[in-house]
Amino acid sequence: MDGRAAGAAGTRAGRRFAALAAALVLVFFMSFALGRYPVNPADLVKILLSQLASLISQALPDGVPFPSGFERTWAEAAETVTLNVRLPRIIAAAAIGAALSAAGAAYQGMFRNPLVSPDILGASSGAGFGAAFGILMRLGYFGISVSAFLFGTGAVLTAYAISGRSRRINGILAMVLTGMMVSSLFSAATSFIKLIADTEEALPAITYWLMGSLASIRMSDIAFAGVPIAAGLVALLLLRWRINLLTLGDDEARSMGVNTARLRAAVIVCATLLTAASVAISGMIGWVGLVIPHFCRMIFGHDYSRLMPASMMFGAAFLIVVDDAARLIATSEIPIGILTAFVGAPVFVYLILSGGAGNEY
Amino acid sequence: MNIEVRGLSFSYGARQALRDVGFSAGPGEIVSVLGPNGAGKSTMFRCIMGFLRTERGAVLIDGDDIRGLGRRELARRLAYIPQAAAPVFNHTVLETVLMGLSGRVAFGRAPGKAHVAAALETLESLGIAHLRDRGCLEISGGERQLAFLARALAQDARILVMDEPTANLDYGHQHGALERARSLALEGYTVVMSTHSPEHAFLYSTRVLALCGGRAVAEGRPGEVLTEGLLESLYGIGVSLHELSVGGRTVRICLPAGAAGPAAGECESGAAGPGAGEVEAEPAEDGAGPAESGIGAER
Q: How many Cα neighbours within 13 Å face the side chain of A58?
């Protein structure tokens, strides 16, 4: 009887994962067909497969035969739109969605608070300042991303280092407080940069950047942010079950033999890499890191061995959909940071009212 | 496994919370730690668990100083059962028990079939296997206490440190939890628990450690050391003890006797209340005046 019950619970979670994975794949490929320039689906498949074939044959050693893909029967523009505009955007949306929701889920467990989002230690406001500073200093496209990433990680390092020196307040509370302090400091610094920025060029660029957008993502951005994001995602997947132990609090986890300080530091490093890299190429995209883990808790429960991969997949699919909406709804792009709230809030309300997918929350 | 606490002292900054506290216990024993709020019970537990670094004195487990044992090794010998307070996230009972196995789950992995089987076995031994898929926020306090106990037992340590196992529980569950502790002791576990009820100490424990103002004011068998005088000085109210014969067994019950005895805190300086002869008199010769006593002080 017990075995059967376990099996039933296992298959139920398995079915939900299968559905989520299918939705992610569907959303990913459907998004290539969406946009102002129409690409017919047959051409789309051929373009993508040909590109894949040419990538594989480049990777193979010389002399190994590999089919070279389809004969070019599509318009040049279709290929450019698919490979240079839509492909980087869809990949970036998936990566950033996964990164922000994984970071949010990890922090919620670590801070033992379901209302925590990835920017709690100042990664987002630090990166926002870095970008504003980069724009003000005319560091150029790549320089702005680097500056954002460095200031994002630097902000968290500062908060972490200060909180570690606190003797009077317990570790988690000290981290929250120093995180708030660092965040507001960098927000104020960003406001100051906006104040002194040239109102014709720099100020609109900063304002638009801070709203968050994937409109100008290029393959080079993905190459830049891909490494920290991939490293953070893989590490959080490896740590996923152990994050459960952090939800117990310091004393209880330590009594079970867990090195909580080391585990927490590992989680902070991962979440910071994910958040700072995401913000560095996309700007501020709020809401995802807070809300997607909630959806996933309702559907998959609170065990991080399921919650973490579920958050990554759900976050990826969600941000792809929102980005599709961002480029389709109006003739001029709507910043995705605005849309995440417009799309996310009604879904969240629905989930709260309907009680999720049968799981007590 | 044996636990021995020797000359334990600890201060929070300038305020000394524990002074030269000691006791020992072995398999089959249940040690009740009694004392008013702020007496140092929690501080002592936190020192025993290695959460706080002791200043003087030592905690020995089977003769090994816990400072020399790694956190993992300590967890294999000593398990902690917190009060049945609600956790933050609604993990299921099975997921909760699996966390007790963290020392046996390889890094980068989640618990596998063997771990689940071990966790289920523990749940079965406590008779709560039917709760396995219930969330810890959806079950009663008594059931949650059992889930935490299961987590500690899954950890496979032979010494159980229970922080007020009866807190937040109704009358039935209080005695259920204590009966459980007794049967675990009979299986060879060593149990150290804190309690606010002298009657629980009489009924269930083999030894008593009374703390007051950070000092051990009495240690020994409950029937011998828990006198009216000691209880009055611990809790600052009049107490009368009565013996009842129930089914051939003599049971001690403890009633508040209205009029206040010596004010709480005076136990520390050895104030001679009526019948305080059994209390180890602690003359304030080390210069620590009553002004510094920790009773009632916030920790």
A: 6
Report whether A45 contacts A82 (CB < 8 A).
no
Q: Which residues of chain B are within 8 Å of residue A303 when distances are taken between CB atoms?
A: 91-92, 95
What is the pTM (predicted TM-score) of this model? Answer: 0.86
d(CA A207, CA A136): 12
Which residue out of A170, A262, A303 would a mutagenesis test of the B interface target, given it has the greatest number of B Cβ atoms within 10 Å? A303
Other beta carbons less than 10 A from residue A84's beta carbon: 12
* Nearest Cβ partner for A257 among B89, B103, B137: B103
pLDDT at residue B258 is higher than 80: no
- How many Å apart are CA B35 and CA B234, to the nearest integer? 6
> For residue B95, what pLDDT band results from cuts at 50, 70 and 90?
very high
Interval A151-169 mean pLDDT: 90
Q: Are A208 and A147 in contact (CB under 8 A)?
A: no
- Backbone φ, ψ for residue A138 (5° rounding): 50, 50
Backbone angles phi, psi at A333, to 5 degrees: -55, 140
Under an 8 A CB cutoff, do A361 and B90 touch? yes
Angstrom distance (rounded) from CA A267 to CA A305: 15
Side-chain half-sphere CA neighbours of A72 within 13 A:
6
**ipTM confidence score:** 0.86
Q: Do A244 and B99 touch (CB under 8 A)?
A: yes
Assigned token pair, A76? 């040049």
Contact (CB<8Å) B102/A257: yes
Q: Does position B276 have pLDDT exceeding 70, yes or no?
A: no
Compute the nearest-CA separation of A227 from chain B (Å): 20
The pair of three-digit structure tokens given for residue B150, joined into one six-digit string: 């299961």
Domains along chain A? 94-354 (1.10.3470.10)
User: Are the Cβ atoms of B82 and A251 closer than 8 angstroms?
Assistant: yes
Chains A, B: CB contacts under 8 A, how many? 93
Take residue B157 and report the two structure tokens written for it.
Answer: 């340590």
- CA–CA dist B141, A218 (Å, integer): 55
User: Which residues of chain A are within 8 Å of residue B91 when distances are taken between CB atoms?
Assistant: 244, 247, 301-303
